[in-house]
Amino acid sequence: MNENCFPHLTDEGQEVAEKIYERHCFFRELLIAMGVAPKTAEVEACRMEHVISEESFERLKKTEFIDNL
């Protein structure tokens, strides 16, 4: 922790955190675009962000149907 009592992340930890946050935002916005209530989308995104593989997530990001939502 730093002097303000915030956790300090290593460079690797920061990279992992950023990847998880990217996934979270992606899934939350996707679910909302599909008509899921924002509160539900937030909860579900928290679950999804941790279980999907890097390969599957990268393919999802490149999928055209998602761009059209």
Write a brief caption for the model:
This protein is mainly α and 69 residues long.
What are the salient characteristics of this protein?
Diphtheria Toxin Repressor, domain 2; 69 residues; globular; single chain
Question: What's the topology here?
Answer:
Blueprint: H1 11-33, H2 38-51, H3 54-62, H4 64-67
Helix pairs in contact: 1-2
The total number of structural domains is 1
| Rg calc | 14 Å
Q: What's the architecture, going by CATH? A: Orthogonal Bundle
Question: What ranges have pLDDT less than 50 throughout 5 or more consecutive residues?
Answer: none
Question: What does this molecule look like?
Answer:
The protein is an all-alpha fold and about 70 residues long. The chain has helices at about 10-35, 40-50, 55-60, 65. It has a single domain (about 10-65), classed as Iron dependent repressor, metal binding and dimerisation domain (Diphtheria Toxin Repressor, domain 2). It is built from four helices and no strands. It starts with 10 loop residues before the first helix and ends with a helix. The relative contact order is 0.12.
